[in-house]
């Protein structure tokens, strides 16, 4: 395809006050800091950082194949003396940690900032792990902004800190910081000199002897960082407001939890740790003299609490506060009231007594005409099968109406789990089929190794590789399978059929199918699951939300022909609406529920999935003249 040049907008001038999310603010600060290389793998809530960075001039930005590669790319740039930036969601650091745990020994030449976005509250993730642990584990500093302005300010401060101490710096964000918007005052880009790579095998080649000599340097650096935290302007004691300040409780907090504390107790004394690792213990001791008791408010693990207690300083924390989710005012206020033995404030008590509003259930579902719909409709027809899934839109196959996914753990895990299910099967399951479902970007991220393991160890697994030409779940970003780079320009495109053959899958066991052709898909799946060797079925239709997708003529239901068979409902397309249900008794005495439907034709894109299982041929194309005209304003 022809290259699609993205127009680079001129950044807003210095001293502009812009409404920015935390992700926007970090991206602006990265550009202003003179960063030359930025890399990431998409993952909510971190995705927008690199998307925005890629629109700025005078730097190189890339979507990497996974988080480990993105960190290694950024580290390489920092080795060369350039400022570099890497972003990922919290679980991404699990993948990248192999590199992190050694680069903390080498240190960096140019500034290196790693933004890690934690998903406190589990809005879009498989766990709620606390990335502040990496600061302790890797002996690197952690900065925690509490709003968009601080996300901007702390990013600039992180680069200065990184270069002064020659250490990677973690910028720990959360979903609330990443996505909530606030006013940010911005500056100008400041280009940084690049010294170039200095050959030093004792530093950059981490064989055991060299690593052993770097360990004392790492520990000495950590001591200097702790001393820096004691005097850092990012750590602030707010003594409380007025001579009558209630000093019965003082709060130690960091990140967005600071905002929750301030909203709940606007006049209370507070120690705000923006530079939270290493913890400045002497500053904590100073603050402790100003209050009767201390409460640590942190999301989500009790890291600061445990470390402060280890210093012999009495604090409360997770003994009165939950260990998961955001610590919003409706949680903080009653917890502190109970701590002080006071009745709940009236406003809080009224909320507690109120009956929760009954919200109509809206389970997550796939998009209209999503190419995964046909896959899960087909999988739901199979019997005696176990299906291991992966991370992506297609994870939704576990739900109604398909119920066609049995396990999902982490990126790429569908491959290894499938092999384990095969090798560890019970005697009673010797004839059970094992299917693994994985998307294109996830396969490139961490699935290729698993497929190679299946082939090498002669696993009896059928792999469904869903190539929808996008990182769909995070917004349709590009990957090596799309043929476009982060700017929309033409790039080499992976041929998945040739790739899986190169990994050892026999050519006759590799099939490329159209997921909208249900009979072909079903026949291929049934055929391959009967054969006791690795096979791969690749679907080849794009995500309906990317430019590669082309809508067809929509469909409608002829009411008089609809018999209520409900076959189309089982496809799971959200454009199909059940208008009424009833029950009838068949001649054989069996009671059957019927579901009469209509198709929301303006939403329908004509994929034809519902047409194929329709028994009475009640679904027909819409005459375009009958469609309502929708005017979309583009300027």
Task: Give a structural overview.
- 32% of the residues lie in helices and 17% in strands.
- The protein is an alpha/beta fold.
- The strands form six sheets. Strands 3-2-4-5-7-6-12 form a seven-stranded mixed beta sheet, sandwiched between helices.
- The longest helix has 24 residues, at 208-231.
- It starts with 16 loop residues before the first strand and ends in a 14-residue tail after the last strand.
- Residues 1-6 and 631-635 have low confidence and may be disordered.
Which helices and strands, and how do they pair?
Elements: E1 17-21, H1 22-32, E2 37-40, H2 47-53, E3 60-63, H3 67-79, E4 84-89, H4 92-106, E5 112-118, H5 132-138, E6 142-143, H6 148-165, E7 169-174, H7 175-179, E8 181-185, H8 201-204, H9 208-231, E9 235-238, E10 250-253, H10 257-264, E11 270-273, E12 275-277, H11 281-288, E13 294-297, H12 303-310, H13 329-339, H14 346-353, H15 371-379, E14 385-388, H16 413-423, E15 433-439, H17 440-456, E16 462-466, H18 496-502, E17 510-513, H19 518-529, E18 535-539, E19 555-557, E20 576-585, E21 591-599, E22 619-621
Parallel strand pairs: 2-3, 2-4, 4-5, 5-7, 6-7, 10-11, 10-13, 14-15, 15-16, 16-18, 17-18
Antiparallel strand pairs: 1-8, 6-12, 9-11, 19-22, 20-21
């Amino acid at each position: 395809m022809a290259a699609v040049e993205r127009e680079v907008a001129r950044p807003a001038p210095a001293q502009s006050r812009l409404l920015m999310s935390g992700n926007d603010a970090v991206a602006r600060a990265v550009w202003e800091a003179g960063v030359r290389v930025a890399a990431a793998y998409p993952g909510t809530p971190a995705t927008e950082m690199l998307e925005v960075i890629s629109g700025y001039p005078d730097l190189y930005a890339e979507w990497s194949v996974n988080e480990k590669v993105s960190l290694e790319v950024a580290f390489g740039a920092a080795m060369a003396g350039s400022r570099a930036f890497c972003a990922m969601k919290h679980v991404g650091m699990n993948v990248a940690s192999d590199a992190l745990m050694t680069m903390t020994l080498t240190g960096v030449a140019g500034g290196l900032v790693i933004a890690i976005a934690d998903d406190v509250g589990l809005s879009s993730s498989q766990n709620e792990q606390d990335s502040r642990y990496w600061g302790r584990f890797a002996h690197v500093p952690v900065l925690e902004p509490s709003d968009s302005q601080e996300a901007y300010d702390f990013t600039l401060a992180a680069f200065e800190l990184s270069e002064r101490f020659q250490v990677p710096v973690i910028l720990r964000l959360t979903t609330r910081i990443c996505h909530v918007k606030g006013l940010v005052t911005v500056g100008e880009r400041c280009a940084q000199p690049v010294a170039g790579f200095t050959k030093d095998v004792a530093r950059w080649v981490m064989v055991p002897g060299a690593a052993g000599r770097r360990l004392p340097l790492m520990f000495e650096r950590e001591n200097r960082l702790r001393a820096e935290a004691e005097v850092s302007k990012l750590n602030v004691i707010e003594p409380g407001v007025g001579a009558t300040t209630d000093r019965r409780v003082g709060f130690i907090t960091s990140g967005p939890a600071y905002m929750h504390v301030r909203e709940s107790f606007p006049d209370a004394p507070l120690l705000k740790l923006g530079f939270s690792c290493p913890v400045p213990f002497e500053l904590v001791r100073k603050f402790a003299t100003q209050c009767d008791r201390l409460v640590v408010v942190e999301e989500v693990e009790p890291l600061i609490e445990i470390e402060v207690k280890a210093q012999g300083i009495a604090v409360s924390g997770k003994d009165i506060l939950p260990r998961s989710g955001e610590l919003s005012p409706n949680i903080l206020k009653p917890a502190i009231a109970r701590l002080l033995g006071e009745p709940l404030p009236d406003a809080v008590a009224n909320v507690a007594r109120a009956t929760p509003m009954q919200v109509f259930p809206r389970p997550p579902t796939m998009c209209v005409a999503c190419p995964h719909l046909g896959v899960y409709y087909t999988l739901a027809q199979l019997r005696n099968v176990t299906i291991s899934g992966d991370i992506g839109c297609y994870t939704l196959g576990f739900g109604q109406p398909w119920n066609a996914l049995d396990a999902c753990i982490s990126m790429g895990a569908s491959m290894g789990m499938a092999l384990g299910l095969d090798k560890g099967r019970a005697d009673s399951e010797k004839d059970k089929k094992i299917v693994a479902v994985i998307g294109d970007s996830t396969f490139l991220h961490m699935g290729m190794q698993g497929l190679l393991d299946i082939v090498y160890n002669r696993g009896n697994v059928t792999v469904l590789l869903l190539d929808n030409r996008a990182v769909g779940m995070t917004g349709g970003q590009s990957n090596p399978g799309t043929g476009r780079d982060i700017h929309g320009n033409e790039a080499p495109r992976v041929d998945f059929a040739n790739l899986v053959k190169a990994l050892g899958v026999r050519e006759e066991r590799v099939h490329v199918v159209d997921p909208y052709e249900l009979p072909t898909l079903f026949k291929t799946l049934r055929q391959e699951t009967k054969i006791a060797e690795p096979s791969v079925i690749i679907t080849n239709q794009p995500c309906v939300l990317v430019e590669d997708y082309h809508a067809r003529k929509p469909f409608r239901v002829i009411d008089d022909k609809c018999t209520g068979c409900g076959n189309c409902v089982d496809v799971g397309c959200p454009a199909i609406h059940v208008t009424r249900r009833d029950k009838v008794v068949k001649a054989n005495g069996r009671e059957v529920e019927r579901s009469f439907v209509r198709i929301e034709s303006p939403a329908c894109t004509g994929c034809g999935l519902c047409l194929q299982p329709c028994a009475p041929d009640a679904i027909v194309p819409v005459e375009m003249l009958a469609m309502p005209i929708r005017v979309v304003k583009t300027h």
